[in-house]
Amino acid sequence: MKTYFIGIDISKDTLDICIINSSDEKEIVFKIDNTVVGIEQMLTSVSDYEQNSEFQYCFENTGNYGLLLARMLEDKHITYYQVPALEIKLSQGIQRGKNDQVDAKRIARYAKMYSDDLKPSALPDKELFTVKNLLTYRSFLIKVRTQFKNEKKSFYQVGKVADVNYEMDEIAQQIKELDQKIAFVESKIKQQINEQENLNKNYEKITRIKGVGFLTATYMLVLTDNFTKFKNPRKFNCYAGLAPFEHTSGSSIKGKTKTSKLRNRKIKTVLFSGANSAIMYDEELKTYYKRKKLQGKAHNSIINAVCCKLIYRIFAVVKREEPFVNLTRYNLHMS
C-alpha cells in the first residue's frame, strides 16, 4: 500500500494542494476554493486518485481559515495533522523564495519527513469551542477598551488648552458600554462552563488554588482541551514558555538558563498576573518569593518559577478527586 502525503497551504479564499507519495515518484499541485464545494472536490479527486492507498493530510494551524477544512475532514472520519507554522518553517532549513504552491510542497514534505512522529489533530468539543470563541471576543473588546482609555488620557492633556468636554463624555460612554459588554461575555463563559459537568468539575477544582482565577482557569481549560491535550505539566510549561532551558556548549559557551521565545504569549501573560496575586495571598508562595528575592533573583525570574509551580498544582489537582489543599502537606519542594 502506498502512502500519499497531502500538504495544504491555507488562505482566506483558497487552498493550495500538493500531493507526493512515499517514493517521490509523483508530485501534483493544484488550487481549490476554501469552500464546502471546493473541499468536497478535493476529497473526491484524492479518493479516486489511487485505490488501496493511505492519505495523510497536513496543514498549518492558521486559526479560523482552516476551521472548515478541519471540520469536513472530521465529519468524514479522515485523519489530519494540524501543525504550527513555525515548526514547519524551522524544519525546512534555509529556504529561498515563497509562494502558496511552494508552501504546499514544503508542508507535504514535512508530513512525509515526520510522519512517524505526528499525532492526529482534532477540533475541541462544541462546548469548549464556544468558550474559546467567547474568550477571543473578550480579548477583542479588551483591546478596543484599552484604545479608548489611551485616547481619554490624550484628550485630557488637550483639555488643558481647549474645550474637549464632548469628546471626553463620548469616550467615557464608550468605555462604560465596553465594560458592560465584557462583563456580559464573561457571564456567558461562566454559564457555558457551569452547564457542562466535565468542564465545571475541573474549573471548580483549579479555581480553589490561590492565584488561579476565572481567566486563568478558563484559558487552561481551552488550551489543554480540558486537560486531555498535554500529558504532564512540564510539557505545558514548555508550550507556555515557562520552562527554563540550558544555553551551554562545551567550555566556551556558558549562557544563562532561560525560557524559550517560542511560546503562547497570551497564557504566559495571564499566568504572570495570577502568580503576582499568588505571592500576596498564598503564604507558601509568599515565603518562596521572599527567599528568592533575598538571594538576589530578579522579580520576573521568580514570578516565572511561581507560574511553573501553579501549573504543577493545577495538573495535580485535576488528576486527584480531592479539592485543592495546602501543598506543604504533600512535601512539595519549594527550592
UniProtKB/TrEMBL annotation:
Entry's Gene Ontology molecular function annotations: DNA binding; transposase activity
Domain of life of the native organism: Bacteria
Pfam families: DEDD_Tnp_IS110, Transposase_20
Keywords: Coiled coil
Keyword Ligase: no
Coiled-coil annotated residue ranges, if any: 161-209
Domain Transposase IS110-like N-terminal: 6-151
GO biological process terms, semicolon-separated: DNA transposition
Residue ranges of domain Transposase IS116/IS110/IS902 C-terminal in the record: 204-290
InterPro entries found in the cross-reference section: Transp_IS110-like_N (IPR002525), Transpos_IS110 (IPR047650), Transposase_20 (IPR003346)
Keyword Coiled coil: yes
Protein name: IS110 family transposase
